[in-house]
Amino acid sequence: MPVSMEEYEIGLSYTIMKMEQQNTNSKEGVEVLQQVPFEDEKLGKGQFTSKDYHLQSKIPSWMKGFAPASALTVHEDSWCSYPNSRTVIKCPLFSKCSLTIDTVIRPDNGCSENAHNLTREQLAAREVEIVDIAASVSRDYWSKVIGAPNVDLTTFESQRTNRGPLLKGWMLQDSCRPVMTTYKLVIMDAPIWGLGERLEDCIIAGERALFLACHRLCFAWIDEWYGMTLDQIREMELQTDLLLKKTLKKPAAKAGSKHDGKRKTLKDEIIAVGSCT
């Protein structure tokens, strides 16, 4: 990304909020259950977020045959403490399955070979894919569902920062400053006989399309979020939470609600899923 690590935290948060607003209506969308600060021995201080994604119309037809539409809700818990974060995604429909995304952000151009400090065995099993926000294109099912942004970053130029256009090989050019890379370790576990491999491929493809769309928009919207502070972003998150609940016609969470006191810590999730890399 042609942004600094500090700018990325602001820009990505803004982009996620705007995408959530655009994809939420009275029937489906994003429901924010909890957003609170957290402190952890490994990640330090950060923001914990718990969300439900009501995605009835976006689930492939072959998956809908397993349960009624009302059961097709995905739950996400995320511990974000830049430059590291962990996200755990689960779906009640496939209770045995889990998707874990560990993120490491570094101020480089993608040259880190082992940003997650994986073991030799993990490196042997790892499949690496480089996603260039300017050149990568998705034309699969998920890109259509997510709504691939109709923006050409090879011609886009920010009016406020004068960054862009992102021409071929932009990330390798010494003149590209600032620059940073987000390294994502995606682990999908679907121990379902006869269905697991197909489900794993489907979800991994969906995450790739989401990563690409979100980061393309993050840069395309830079003139909207550039110059904002983290305090402004946190206030926007509170307002977005209320707006999403109103749109979905869900009651806003209150102090002492059923969500309070029941949040798993990151340490709990590391024990349940495995060591955080």
Describe the structure.
The protein has 277 residues and is α+β, with helices and mostly antiparallel strands. 32% of the residues lie in helices and 22% in strands. It has 8 helices and 6 strands; from the N terminus they run H-E-E-H-E-E-E-H-H-E-H-H-H-H. It has helices at residues 5-22, 61-64, 120-125, 141-146, 196-220, 222-225, 230-248, 266-273, and strands at 29-40, 44-54, 73-81, 84-91, 94-106, 181-189. A 6-stranded antiparallel sheet has the order 1-2-3-4-5-6, with helices on both faces. Strand 1 (29-40) and strand 2 (44-54) form a beta hairpin. Helix 1 (5-22) crosses helix 5 (196-220) and helix 1 packs parallel to helix 7 (230-248). The longest helix has 25 residues, at 196-220. It is globular. Residues 253-277 have low confidence and may be disordered.
Structural descriptors:
single chain; 277 residues; alpha+beta; 6-stranded antiparallel beta sheet; 6 strands; disordered C terminus
Label the overall shape.
Answer: globular
- What is the share of helical residues? 25-40%
What's the alpha carbon Rg, rounded to whole Å?
Answer: 19 Å
The number of distinct helices, counting runs of at least 4 residues, comes to 8
Span of the ends, CA to CA: 23 Å
- Average pLDDT confidence is 82
The main pleated sheet reads as:
6 strands, antiparallel
Q: Give a count of the beta strands, DSSP E runs of length 2 or more.
A: 6
Strand portion: 15-25%
